Amino acid sequence: MFLTNIRQRRETIRRIAVYLIEHQEPYLRQGVRFLRAMTRAEVADGSGATGANADVRQDRPTRKQKSSAREDEVESLFHRGTPLAEGHLT
User: Fold this and answer.
1) Is the pLDDT of residue 19 over 50?
2) Is residue 89 domain-resident?
3) Rg for the chain, CA atoms, rounded
4) What pTM does this model have?
5) pLDDT in tens, 40-62
6) 49: exposed, middle or buried (C-beta count within 10 Å: 0-12, 13-18, 19+)?
7) Domain that holds residue 34
8) What's the rounded Cα separation, in Å, for the pair 49 and 44?
9) Which CA distances in Å does 56 have to 47, 59, 61, 74, 75?
10) What is the spatial distance between Cα 46 and Cα 29, in angstroms, rounded to a whole number?
11) Is position 51 within any domain?
12) Per the structure, how many domains does the chain have?
């Protein structure tokens, strides 16, 4: 079970990385001026991050529950602060 969870986490990180690389290519090639704002929901939906946080008590979670589970999974991979120009986190 533990190794399965690690494999699943690794696959989630891979899918998110691929999605970010594809959608932030101008930023990666040309610099911070080309960084595009993205929401956790957009990344979760676009990368297909699903599963780990889904509510298993229901046979078929609603679309909103699935979206929320993907957002929670993606959110767990990022620091909660936002970098500022001065280098501090909010």
Assistant:
1) yes
2) no
3) 15
4) 0.55
5) 888 888 988 764 433 333 344 55
6) buried
7) 2-75
8) 5
9) 21, 7, 8, 18, 20
10) 21
11) yes
12) 1
